[in-house]
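Methods: example folding runs. The two proteins below were folded one after another, and each record is reproduced exactly as written to the output file, sequence line first and structure-token line second.
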Amino acid sequence: MVCFYLFSIDKIGQIYLGSSRDVICSIKKDFLKDTVNNLVTEIDLKRTAKSKNVEKYVARTFDIIDVKMDITDEEFHDFFIHFFQNNPDYKNVMVVLWDGSAQKAVYDPYGLSHETWVDTVYNNAGTFTAYRVAMHGKYRYFLGVTKEYTESLVKTDILSTIRGVQFAGNSFIRVNEIMNDKGGENYAVCRIYPDMPELEGSYLSTDTPDSKGDYPNKKELDGINKKGEIFYSYYVERRNSKEAAKTLVYSKRYQNYNWVISMGIYLDDLNPYLNQIDRESNQMVSRLTYALVLLFALILAVSLSSISLIENLYHRNSRKQMESEMNLDSLTGAATRRNGVKELTRAFHKFKQMGTGPGIMMCDLDHFKSINDKYGHSAGDRVLSLFVSEMKLFLRSSDMVIRWGGDEFVFLLQGLREEAAMDFCRKFILKVSELRIGDIKEELSITVSVGITFFKDTDEDYAQAVNRADEGLYQSKGKGRNSASVIL
């Protein structure tokens, strides 16, 4: 047992160490995924905020132009062109000035105009984050900021934020922009990689292997195309180290920019945690081994006394079981007469002390001998067994059924009042008459004759009450059976 224990402890230690690694990796996975998802949420918030700022910017620009609505058309023409040519603060506002009389654009520095004014507005509106359309005399004008420019502001802001973030535990983050979902040469470009800034701007290929011959770019792209996200591992040379380190990476696609945002950790950073767990595990094993030696010594010291105690308990339980079996009738499951006498004696003593006692009912099955004679004793045994089992269901759990002899039974009915005795007997007789006994040549029904009484102050022992119940039983038989008699 000691050898088996030591062998098992070693195996359990290995399993524990492996489980600890799995738990730590699971925690790290949650960290990677949560970090990327938080970044995606931040991008969405920045896009929303930037769009609102652009709308305010366009509205403010429109208000400045709208102030000049009281000047002449020629003055407005000159003012509009001069304002956007000489104000660098509004260089990102794209504009068109349209002459309604000539039906053509008279100022279109960005080539936005079409054949008609309606086409010009219709074809450009969808590409702008915010825009305004208005008119001054014969002139109509369009001004706004494009979605492309707005998104470029968000991208610049996000990339700057990522570069400034410091992650604990030598984690790293990377953003690639996918240009070809099918992969191959130059399928993506690295937009940001703070851990290796020299790679930013470089093009990527799915055919590029890592130091172990695996293809991480292809693995990432396949996972992104299939589910939009993926956990995977690959080997990479860490900065200031020529040794390849295994990484665990979570990548997720941000569809709006066609970005793949990846967050990773170097798995060799887990070794200090695992070494600490291993040291603690070995210390625990040493303590357990010492405790095991003491335990075996204790077992040897108490083994003989334990065996003796168990043997005594076994004999005691066996004796109780034997007594229990002796107290129950083997055929019907009712209490034996011997046990019934004990209960009747106990009930009589309680009556003498407290003045309360059970109802004592005696009954036997009418014409039971004819059942035995006609169908055999096995049929009679089934009748008795069914009678007792059904009456136990009819009675309360505190009541007791005693097989007094043959087909004669005594019932101890706890809490039964004298004035309710006859009503109870009627219900009892009716319940018995409803029984049907099968499994013989023909279906049988049975009836009973009943006598019931209670303890009296003049009684000297329980037997006097039983005799009165027996007397009531014979009175019922004299009345033609299937009836009850109460004797008080």
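Second run, written to the same file directly after the first:
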Amino acid sequence: MLTIFPDYMFRRYRQGKRIGHEITLFSVWYELRYGIVTCLMLTISLVTVVFYYHPSTTNVSSFFRTVTILSESGGRVEEVYVINNQEVNAGDPLFSLDASSQRAAVETAERQIEEVLAQFNVAEADLAAARGVVAQAKGALDQAKEELAVRQTLLDQGSTAVNTRDVEKLENVVETRQGALDAAKAQLKAVEAEVEISLPAAKATALASLKQAQTELEKTVIYALVDGTVEQFALQPGDIVNPILRPAGVLVPPDVGEGRFQAGFSQLSAQVIKPGMLAEITCMSLPFTIIPMKVVGVTDYIPSGQFRPSDQLLDVQDRARPGTLNVYMEPLFEGGTKLVSRGSKCIANVYTNNHDRLHSEEMSTGKWLFLHMVDTVGLVHAAILRIQALLLPVQNLVLTGH
């Protein structure tokens, strides 16, 4: 446009030369070789400056979180409480599994508690009986000791009504009754230990078993843990649900990741894109609209370099596909991306800003001209983005086959 077209107009209409005669491909090249080469070099330089200092990418999307609807254990669906695409709140029941075995476990645990409580009543009766036996043995021992003391006193006084044989028999009786008292006290301690230690421990175990059984029973009803919309949910009573092989559906929470976009730029942009830079995006879900953005974060790693330990060594040639630089962007103005659907496919431009450097005193003329050109060609890139925004719906129709 700057070289060939004006030259052709001059030679054709001013000098009267004709194409194919005086005007040929060789004559045009020979006469304009310096101008054509200069224009090509300027064009390449301009394109390089535009796409290096003002990076662009078509890999932009707003990612959002999803929650898999799973049961903690596998089982057969007993009842379904929601339908697909229904909005639910945290704590709402979604579906329940067959809980016959869990109900039986709860009932068994309740019977164990009743059994332990019955053992408490029996133990209380045994405790009262053991105390009675101790009191009876103690009374008999005291009576034998008193009678022995009387006989021993009479024997010491030389009375003929008592002999040594009678005293020895009473001593044996006292020892026997002392043994009976010790046995009764031991029995009492055993009953007290059962009432104070064994039975409370058995009761606590039974209560823990009941709590565990009730927990397992509660797990048969699956609740929504967050607010959201139920998607890909087609359960019917009788279906089998497995937490590993067959999830029940997906729950999409609202407003998670809204307004935050993740873009994948070429690795050449790693030294250019910095947090705080201005950007613009246009999305398929909101055509003919340019949304001003700002860069809020740039990762210092390339995701394609990730590896997991395995039994095989990593071969670098298997990673021939270059990764992208992850850049996070948010709308410059609040609510700027409110009309953009989450997960939309977008195009983004990021613009450098050398305003502060241009106004610094330590700036040479050549560098000032270069930085001024860098900021000026950003207008070219912005114009390109607006053309892409106009062509994006057409591109979408072509890609979808309409």
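Comment on the second run: The chain has a mean pLDDT of 82.
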